[in-house]
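hiii so um. not sure if this is the right channel but i have a protein structure encoded as tokens and i wanna go backwards to a sequence. like what aa goes where. can anyone help
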């Protein structure tokens, strides 16, 4: 992402009139990641993550409203014993766009949040800043998820800007 910005800046300075600079989408760039920690770094400041234990919540993920996921820049990460799947909704009626990561390990902060207070959590909400914002033993309702996200300072700013 930074290299694309540098290229665009150099092209602009060179006054190349036909140069079109389109910054690569962080989700597309994250496809080359080898671990969830790397995915999280690639998506930080662009997307929120809903990290879900696949064994507990696979069927309940189908109940999430795709328009709400898109509006709130929410990427769904499901983890299991063998791999991690990262997906996002691209439009309300279209199947989730997804890719898999073979390294099943979770970043230390996520693993710690999943086992906090002696209770096993199965779902984490990660903010655009990379911090754990909420943890649940089972998937939250769409309304609860939206309510938590909508009071986050970055989301409030997005809503003021009309995003």
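sure thing!! here u go:
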């Amino acid at each position: 992402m930074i290299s694309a910005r540098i290229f665009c800046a150099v092209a602009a300075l060179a006054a190349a009139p036909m140069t079109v600079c389109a910054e690569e989408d962080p989700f597309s760039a994250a496809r080359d990641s080898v671990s969830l920690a790397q995915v999280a770094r690639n998506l930080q400041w662009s997307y929120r993550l809903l990290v879900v234990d696949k064994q507990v919540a696979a069927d309940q993920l189908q109940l999430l409203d795709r328009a709400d996921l898109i509006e709130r820049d929410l990427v769904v990460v499901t983890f299991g014993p063998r791999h991690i799947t990262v997906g996002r909704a691209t439009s309300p009626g279209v199947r989730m766009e997804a890719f898999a990561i073979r390294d099943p390990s979770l970043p230390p902060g996520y693993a710690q949040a999943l086992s906090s207070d002696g209770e096993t959590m199965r779902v984490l909400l990660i903010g655009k800043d990379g911090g754990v914002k909420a943890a649940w033993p089972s998937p939250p309702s769409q309304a609860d998820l939206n309510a938590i996200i909508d009071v986050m300072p970055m989301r409030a700013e997005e809503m003021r800007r009309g995003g």
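oh and Residues 33 and 129 are 19 Å apart (CA to CA).
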